[in-house]
Design brief:
By secondary structure, the chain is of the alpha+beta class. The chain is built from 14 helices and 19 strands.
């Protein structure tokens, strides 16, 4: 009876997660991806320039288009008034006439149409680099952003192969003075996320960010500054990604306490349903390089829009046979939460049951900040030479210690353990 009871409990709880060590080396944990996004989604200057250069119908003025462009972020970010829908439908006709795709429209109007507009200086492991060596432009739900150490989507690799080879020298002055087309391929073409072997301020990533407060035109947040998303390098940044805000004229220090969870070989003997997790090579998600619960949930939302509205969002890599959603799809997109239940989502074609990863990295963080002042004497670092820090911010992201926490997912019991536990509970005889 004891054996049966133990087995039944084991069958319900076959896997356990325990803290194996609080002294794991930080170089065993990849550095996370860092994605920076201007809170301002639409540049006022770019919107005015575009509205003045479009071919317009007789009844539409450039000012009408200029006002309509302020509304375009609402496509995936909220409920839209009927009056605004009418404006966006007219705008859709105009951009179709001018041969402008929705992705081109969002990218052109973004304050981050080039990462140089957002990032002034970059330093990695205390060495200065051109920012285009470290950051690449990415499109996510909140807009066009710039990402460091980004490995989430497959289609970002193609541009790296076109770049020239960097000389062997690692001299910082040489790297800073390299022309635009001459980038550090060692960084852009790394096959796995970057790592660090030290901890503390300025031992990892330091960037000088700039915000044009006079160019704000359309924002979903009643503030000015930059959103910073920090997550696993293989996760696509989304609205549920850990984020912090960097205000203009501040210095922000984000200290990470990395955590690693790994699984023993015995876990693989169980089915995903039994262990309630997937290994990275068990599930493939479209253009994603690696499976994760986060990516799976993002993909499920894309599939929902694809199945119900017949299109994919502009910020997601285009799928064969599907068009990009536009402003005529607003009614379908905004009513999806009301029309679909959880059961509908699970039974949807190509739907995947999203489970956590069996092995993953996490980055709990702490934030400290202060006001950035141009009157404080600096120590002569080239990072601050010949740069105007008005409305700029300094962002420092680093590991806060040389050690990390390591978790182990393991089989809770095997047959030897079960029998051993039963036998140890058997009453012992006393000899008198």
């Amino acid at each position: 009876m004891l054996v049966i009871t133990a087995y039944r409990w084991y069958a319900r709880n076959p896997v356990v997660t325990v803290i194996e060590s609080t002294q794991g080396a930080i170089w065993d944990v990849p550095f996370p991806a860092v994605t920076v996004c201007d809170i301002n989604v639409i540049s006022k200057k770019a919107a005015r320039s575009l509205s003045n250069n479009l071919t317009l119908p007789p009844h539409v003025t450039p000012d009408y288009v200029f006002k309509a462009l302020k509304l375009i972020p609402l496509l995936f970010l909220g409920t839209i008034k009927e009056k605004d829908k009418e404006q966006l439908n007219i705008l859709q006709d105009i951009i179709d006439t001018n041969g402008i795709t929705l992705k081109t429209l969002f990218t052109t109007l973004s304050p981050t149409s080039s990462c140089d507009n957002l990032i002034q200086r970059c330093m990695w492991k205390n060495i200065m680099y051109r920012c285009d060596q470290l950051f690449q432009q990415v499109t996510i739900k909140v807009g066009t952003c710039c990402s460091f150490n980004y490995f989430a989507i497959d289609d970002l690799d193609s541009h790296a192969s076109k770049l020239s080879t960097l000389p062997e020298s690692r001299d910082a002055s040489l790297i800073v003075s390299l022309p635009f087309h001459y980038r550090n391929l060692d960084l852009l073409q790394m096959s796995t996320p970057r790592r660090v072997a030290s901890c503390g301020y300025q031992t990892a990533l330091t960037v000088l960010l700039k915000v044009d407060v006079d160019d704000y035109y359309s924002s979903g947040i009643a503030s000015q500054g930059i959103l910073v998303f920090i997550d696993n390098a293989y996760n696509i940044p989304d609205q549920d990604t850990p984020a912090r805000m960097v205000s203009p004229s501040t210095e922000v220090l984000i200290a990470l306490a990395p955590e690693r969870t790994y699984s023993t070989s015995g876990i693989k003997a169980f089915t995903p349903e039994q262990r309630q997790c997937y290994f990275h090579n068990e599930v493939t998600l479209a253009n994603f390089k690696q499976y994760s619960f986060h990516n799976c949930m993002v993909f499920q939302r894309i599939l929902t829009i694809q199945s119900e509205c017949g299109c994919v969002p502009w910020f997601f890599p285009e799928q064969d046979g599907y068009r990009v959603c536009n402003f005529r799809d607003i009614d379908c997109i905004e009513t999806l939460p009301e029309r679909l239940s959880i059961k509908d989502l699970v039974n949807m074609p190509r739907s995947i049951r999203c489970l956590p990863e069996c092995e993953h990295y996490d980055y709990p963080l702490e934030v400290a900040m202060g006001k950035l002042s141009s009157k404080v004497p600096l120590n002569g670092l080239p990072f601050f030479e010949n740069v105007n820090i008005e409305n700029s911010s300094v962002l420092n992201i680093f590991f806060n210690d040389l050690v990390s926490t390591r978790y182990r997912r393991d089989v809770y019991l095997n047959w030897q353990n079960i029998l051993g536990n039963v036998l140890t509970t058997k009453p012992r005889c006393k000899h008198i």
